[in-house]
TetR family transcriptional regulator
Amino acid sequence: MATQKSKQPAPDATRRSEKSRRAIYDAALDLVAEVGYPRTTVEGIAARAGVGKQTIYRWWSSKAEVLLEAFLDLSEQAAQQAAPGQAYAIPDTGDLAADLKAVLRMTVDQLKDPRFEAPSRALAAEGVVNEQVGRVFVAKLLEPSLQLYVDRVRAAQEAGQVRPEVDPRIALELWVSPLAQRWLQYTGPISYDYTDTLVDYALHGLAPR
Amino acid sequence: MATQKSKQPAPDATRRSEKSRRAIYDAALDLVAEVGYPRTTVEGIAARAGVGKQTIYRWWSSKAEVLLEAFLDLSEQAAQQAAPGQAYAIPDTGDLAADLKAVLRMTVDQLKDPRFEAPSRALAAEGVVNEQVGRVFVAKLLEPSLQLYVDRVRAAQEAGQVRPEVDPRIALELWVSPLAQRWLQYTGPISYDYTDTLVDYALHGLAPR
Amino acid sequence: MATQKSKQPAPDATRRSEKSRRAIYDAALDLVAEVGYPRTTVEGIAARAGVGKQTIYRWWSSKAEVLLEAFLDLSEQAAQQAAPGQAYAIPDTGDLAADLKAVLRMTVDQLKDPRFEAPSRALAAEGVVNEQVGRVFVAKLLEPSLQLYVDRVRAAQEAGQVRPEVDPRIALELWVSPLAQRWLQYTGPISYDYTDTLVDYALHGLAPR
Amino acid sequence: MATQKSKQPAPDATRRSEKSRRAIYDAALDLVAEVGYPRTTVEGIAARAGVGKQTIYRWWSSKAEVLLEAFLDLSEQAAQQAAPGQAYAIPDTGDLAADLKAVLRMTVDQLKDPRFEAPSRALAAEGVVNEQVGRVFVAKLLEPSLQLYVDRVRAAQEAGQVRPEVDPRIALELWVSPLAQRWLQYTGPISYDYTDTLVDYALHGLAPR
DNA sequence: CGTTAAGCGAGACGGTACGTCATGTCTTAAC
DNA sequence: GTTAAGACATGACGTACCGTCTCGCTTAACG
C-alpha cells in the first residue's frame, strides 16, 4: 500500500495494547451512562481508563468513534451471550403477526435497559448530525437487525401470508420506525400494547376489508 | 407554567430589544446552516449578531434553546407566508390515499430544503440526547403537524374509509415515522415513490385481502 | 440654547440629590472596608447605595474618584468633630522634639484605625499608578497635613532650635516619609518607640557631635 | 514552606517550557511599560507571548505574580550585567556623606529609567493594597538593597563617623524613605540636590550644633 | 400652581476580561 | 515503539463589570 504521509505515522496495530482497548471501552460506556454523552470527554475517558490521551487519539479520531466501537463491542458480546456461536434470527412459528409481536416486545424491553439506552441514544443523536457516524451506526448496528425482519417477511411471502409485490425492506419500517421514533424523539409512550397494535395495523391496513 | 429558579433576578421582558432578538435568531440559523450545529457557538452567534454574549445568556440558557426558538420563529413566519391568517390543514378531496400522498410529497420537498434541513436536524439531534429540548421540539413543532393527520384520518373514519376502531394517532405513524427515520438516520433514500408506497401499505396492509 | 451633544451634557449641580451623594459615599467606604478596593465595583456601590449606576457616572468618572471624594468628605467630618470650627495645628510647647513625638504618636494611632486604613491605603495605591489621582490625593489630603509641620519647624527656626538654612519642607520628610513607607509598603513595624527614634535622629543627626 | 492547597494537581516543574516562561516575562514587562499596569491583562500577556492563557494560570495565580517574577528576573539579570558574579556593595571611601550621595544619585537615575519605572511602580502599588505581594516585593527586591546601607552605616560606626547607639536599619530610612515617597506619591520633585540635602540633614541633624 | 425638563432608580445593552475546561498535538521517561 | 503522563496553543465556556443607553417616575424651578 502507499505509505501515508499522514499526521499519524500509521500506528502498528500488532503492538496494540488489548488491555488499554478494553479499559477505554469500559470507561467510555460507563461515563456515558453516568454523566451523559455531552459531558463525557476524551480526557475523562482516558483518566478513568488509566490511559494516556494519546493512546485514544492514536486509535480513534473522536469520542463518537470511541463510543461507536465500544458499543459495537458491547453488542457483539451481548449477542454472543444470548446465542453463543450462532446467528440470531426471528422465530418462524408460521404465524407472522405473533412472531413480530414477540420480537417487538423484546425490543421494547431492550430499549428500556439503561445499559443500552444511554450509549445508543448518544450514538443515534451523534449520527443525526454527523453523517459519517450515522452511516456507520446504521450499517453496523441497525441494518443487521433489520435484515432479520426482511428475512422473516420474505418467508411469510413464500407462505402466502404477505402479498408478493410488497417490498420487505419498506414493510418492516411500518413497525420499526414508529417504535424508533417514539423512543428517539419522545413522541409517545412505548408499551407492548403499542407494538402489538402496530403489527396489526401494518398487516391488515387501516381501510375496512 | 413553572416559575424559574434561576440565579439571575429575572430580566424585565418589557425592556427587551426586539432588534437584538431578531439578529440573534438570524445569526443562529445562518451559522447552523453554514458551519453546522456542533461548530456553532454562543460566542459566534453573539459576534455575528453584533450583540454581547450576556444578551444571549440573559434570555436563553444554551445554544440549543436559542436555536429552538429561532427555528420556531422561522416556522411561524413560513406558515404565515404560506397561508396568511389561517390555520393549515390537510386537504380533504374525499380520497384519503391521494390526500396523504400529496402532503407527504410536500414534506419530502421540505426535508430537502437546506434552509430547514440544518436547523431541524440539529434540533432533532439535540432533542435525542437532551430530553427537555426534545419535548419542547415535539410539543411545539412536531405535534401540531401530526395533529393535522389525526384530523384527516378522523374525517376518513367518518366517511367509512378507515376502520372505526383505528387510533388515528398511531395510524399516522405508519407513514410519518418511516419517513422521519430515513431522513434522520440515513437508513434509506427518500422519494415520492417511497412515500406513495408507504401510504399504500398503511392503508391496505401487507396481508393479502 | 442648543446645548452641546457632548458626552456629558453638563449636569445641573443645583438639582443634585444630596441623599444619593451621601448614600454613595457611605456605600463606597463600607465596601472598600469590607471587601477591599479591587473587589469594590461601581455596580456594587450603586446597588448598596440604592442608586442607579448612571447617577454615579453622572457625577464621577471612576471608582477612584468616588472613593477619593468619599474619603475627603470623611476626613473633613472627622476634622470637624475633632476640633469644631477651628484649624488644626501642631502644638508649640517650645520643645520641638516633644511636640513632634506627640503628633507622630497620634498619627501612629490613626494609621491603625481600620475606618481610615482601608480607604487611604486604597487611594494611596491608586495614586501610585494613576498620577492624576495621586496628585489630587496629595494636594487635598497629604499636603495640608504636611503644611502643619512646615509651620511648626519654621517656628522652631525662629526660636533658634533649628538651623536657619534648613528647608522645612524637606526636614519634615525625615520623620514623615519613614513612617509613611513602613505603613504603605510593610517595610517595618510601626510603634511609638520608632517614631520617637525618628525624631531624635532627625533633630540631632547620625554623626557624633 | 507551606504546601499548596490549590485545586490543580501541582504541575510538574521539570517539564516546564523555559521558552514560554521567558516570553511571558518579556510580554508582561513590555505591556506594563506600554499601556500601564491596569490595562495590562493576562489575556494580553498570553497573546503577546504567543502562549495559551492556561500556561500562565498553570504557573502563576494572578497578573501581579507574573509581573513580580518578571521584574525579579529582570533585576537579577541587570545585577548580573552590572557586576557579573559578585555581590553589589556601596563603596566605602571613608567619607560616608560622599558615598551615600553618590549611591543616591544613581538611585535617582534609576528611578527615572522607564524600563524600571513602570513595573516597579505597578508592583509597589499592588503591594500597597495586596499585602502578600507587598511582602514579597519588599523581601525580594527592597530589603536586599537596604541591607547594603545597613552594612555601610555599620562600617561608618566602626570608623567613628556615626554614633554607636544609632540603629542602622532606621538610619537609612532618613534618606531612603523621603526619596521613595516623593517618587511613589508625587509629593515632590526628585533631583541630585534633593538627595544631597537629605544626606546632609540626616547626618548632621536639624538642630544647631 | 400647573408645566416641564432635569435628576433619579432601574436595568438592558455591546463589550472586554476573567478564570476554567476540553481539544488535539507534542515531548519525555518507563517498559 | 507503544505506553502513561502531562505541558502546550487554542478556543469556547459562562460570569462579572464596564460605561452607555433608554425607560418611567419623581421633583423642583419657572412661566
